[in-house]
Structures are given as structure tokens and as C-alpha cells.
Amino acid sequence: MGKQHLFTPIILKILKDRYGKPAESIYTKSDLLQYLNIKTQSAASGSKARAAFGKHFSIHAIVEDYIDKGFMESGRYRNYEGARFSDLFHSQRSLPFGTKLQNHDLNNRINDDFRSNFPESDFVPILHDPVSHRYWINENLLKVKVGGKTYNIAPAILDIIQSYIAAKKSAFEQFLADCQQMAALSGKKTAEVRDFIAGRLQQNVDARVFEIVSYAILKQYYETQSIFWGWTLESIQEEGLVLYKTGRTNANDGGIDFVMRPLGRFFQVTETVDVRKYFLDIDKIQRFPLTFVIKSNDPVDVILSRIKAQANRVYSIDKIVERYMGCIEGIINIPLLLERFDEICECNRLKSVISEIVLQSKVEFNVT
């Protein structure tokens, strides 16, 4: 049956409710159901776990189109002109958490991911005609033969994805409730609030939660600092540092997650120590210096040594390596974020951090 996790019984219950006794055999014989099982591991893990909405939403949109157009009953899907990208994209964005979804998964990413998990499968989930820009679900993956009977699992696919969304929504609502509770406690139980924040800066947390918490900490930290500047000696004045979040988390924004004013520093949040990704981010902004906020507990000097070692291996030319390394303005790891957070607590700005987390989380997850 493949790897099971806390959401697997929910998938099996959905199948049993729809198909009865053959449910387990249907699951075992369906690569698409097992793929969804792999992609729903985070559902029962709370707000910490990464949610892979893009792939689920792509499948949901195209299967929903298949059902709504009556192809389960007509059996004439092979003659269908295909769904328009704009319609599928609108359908994805109408789902919870889908408002700011990007188009990557419809454009081959889901098929590549499916192949990596099921390399021996003859099929991929989404069929695409690049000339007409039309899309189809691969009906071969919707029809499962068990005991001489063919079951169309399209409705079950929608049920599973909607249950996954509901589970993640519930987990996130709990996360927001916890944040609000911590805000109420911030003046009374600092240690408890610190433990809560520290728990959102671990390597197993959802990338979006990590980025939001990192931003909230750094924003408050830099607001306690100021510089003196001006166009002339006579116009020099004091101005506080302000950190701005440039867009959604995990967005294709050219390697800029935060921007500091008035210094003009750029920050990029990342989960990996992958020199190709780092240098790609640097190239996107024409080798403007970047500070990397890294989801890692490794010491800063170890991270830098690892990046340089990879760079030497990949590029082998000292001049190129040094030019890229010179663009890394700073590294902020998890211990440094916690150190910054402790300094904020000493300045009695703890409640502001929690409030910023709540605000940015509502924006990120489209919660009003």
C-alpha cells in the first residue's frame, strides 16, 4: 500500500464510503491515489508542515472540469477540445489558500514530480497541447480496474483534495489562535511565548511560516536601529531602519523577500545550502549584494564554508567564485534569529512580533 501517514486513513475512508469493499484494492492499483497520499503527508502535522497546494489544486481544477462537463457519464473525453488555462487557473485561485497561486504546476512541474515518484508508470496526470494551450486530465489514471469492474475515481479525487484543504485550513486557524493567545500572554509569560516562537523557527516548519516569523523578528529588530544621513552635511538627519516584505512567500520575485530602507539591503529567505540557487538569486538582481536568511542551525562560518566549497567545485575559477561570494552580504541562521528575538524581548517589543506574525499570516493565507 506504500508509505502510510496520519492522513492515509482519511483517504481510505473516502474510498470506502464511495466504493465499499474494493476501496483498498482501488487505492493499491491507483498511482494517482498513491501520489495524493504522498502529497498529503503534511495534512495532519499542523501549521509547521509544508503544504503543497499547487499540485493538489492543479489536479482538483482539471478533474473538476472533467466532472462538470459530464465526461464521467458520456465517455467521450477523448473528443474534448480541452480546458482553457485561464479557466483552470481561475478554478485553482477560487480554492482556500489559492488566491495568489502561481501557474508552475500546470506547466509540467506536476508531471515531473509524478514521474519522480512513479518512474515506471506509463502515464502522467496532466496532458497539455502547447499549440492550442488546452489541458486534459489523463483519464487512464482515473479509471481503475478491480475484479473485472472499472471504477472512475474522479469524485474521490476531489473529496481527498478538499479534505486535505480542510485539514490544513483547520491547522492554520489553530496556528492563528495560538498566535493571538501568545499575544495576550506576551506581557506575562515571556518564556512561554519565546518557546512558541522558537518552535516556528525549526527546520521542519512550513517554509511560509518560517519566512513570516523571520520577517516579524527582523522587522522589529531593525526598527530599534537608525542611521544618520543626508545629501549635504547641513541636511544630515536621523532615520530609523524599516524592513519591508516584498510579496508572497515562495514567490518568483527575483530573489528579494525583504528590502530594508533607507540602506537598500536585500534579503532572501531559503531552506537550502545550494550554491546554484544562491548564485541564481544573485544573478537575478545583477549581482547586487544579498543577505540570506537560512533555515539552518549550522554556524554561519560553517554555512559560508559549505557554500564556498560547492562554488569551487562547480565553477573551478577563483575569480568567478570570489565575485559571487562577495555578493553574500550576510548570513542569518536560526540561532541568530533567536538571538535577535531575545534582544527584542528585552526592548519590550514581543507583542509587536506576534502581531506582525498574525498580520502577515492572514495576508499569506488569505484569511480575513
Oligomer: single chain
Helix content: 40-55%
Q: State the total count of DSSP E strands.
A: 12
Determine the mean pLDDT: 85
Low-confidence parts: 44-50
Spatial strand sequence of the major β-sheet: 8-9-10-11-12
Distance between the termini: 40 Å
Q: How many structurally independent domains? A: 2
Main sheet, how many strands, which sense, barrel?
Answer: 5 strands, mixed
Number of helices: 15
| Estimated structural class | alpha+beta
**What overall geometry do the principal axes of the alpha carbons give?**
globular
Please indicate the percent range of residues in DSSP E strands (runs of 2 or more). Answer: 5-15%
Pattern of helices and strands: HHHHHEHHEEEEHHHEEEEEHEHHEHH
Rounded to the nearest angstrom, the radius of gyration is 24 Å
Describe it.
Helices cover 52% and strands 13% of the residues. 35% of the residues are buried. It folds into 2 domains: 8-167, no CATH class; 186-364. The strands form 4 sheets. Strands 8-9-10-11-12 form a 5-stranded mixed sheet, with helices on both faces. Strand 10 (266-270), helix 11 and strand 11 form a beta-alpha-beta unit. The protein is an alpha+beta fold and 368 residues long. The longest helix has 32 residues, at 154-185. The protein has helices at 8-19, 23-29, 31-39, 53-68, 71-74, 85-93, 105-117, 154-185, 190-199, 207-223, 275-284, 300-315, 318-325, 334-346, 350-364, and strands at residues 83-84, 126-129, 134-137, 143-146, 149-152, 226-229, 237-240, 242-245, 258-261, 266-270, 290-294, 328-332. It starts with 7 loop residues before the first helix and ends with a helix. It has 15 helices and 12 strands.
